[in-house]
Write a structure and sequence with these properties.
The protein is an all-alpha fold. It is built from five helices and no strands.
């Protein structure tokens, strides 16, 4: 029983430190982000595309990059996945050899 509890504790610690428990991608209202746009349909499509582009690799993006970009987007007062995507691509391209564009 003690061995089982030790193993269970180790598994929990490993899972908690893995991307399985990574900070979730913010849930923003894209209609709100697009309300001032003259072409609502196009804006919603662009936001949806940016969300898809960001959500796939989200758990693999270093937490410091995610946090910095979320802070930047919030500070700008724009809860926009396009702005978040652009920030992530800029930071990843500058700080790491890989980017969201290559997926490598």
């Amino acid at each position: 029983m003690k061995c089982f509890l030790k193993s269970l504790t180790l598994i929990i610690v490993l899972l908690a430190s893995s991307s399985a428990f990574a900070e979730a991608l913010p849930k923003w209202n894209i209609r709100q982000a697009c309300k001032a746009d003259s072409d609502l349909a196009a804006c919603l499509a662009f936001e949806g595309n940016a969300f898809s582009k960001v959500s796939g690799p989200w758990a693999t993006i270093p937490p410091k990059v995610r946090d910095a970009c979320i802070s930047k987007v919030v500070a700008l007062g724009q809860q926009s996945y396009r702005v978040l995507r652009d920030c992530l691509e800029e930071k990843l391209t500058a700080d790491y050899p890989r980017s969201l564009k290559t997926g490598k």
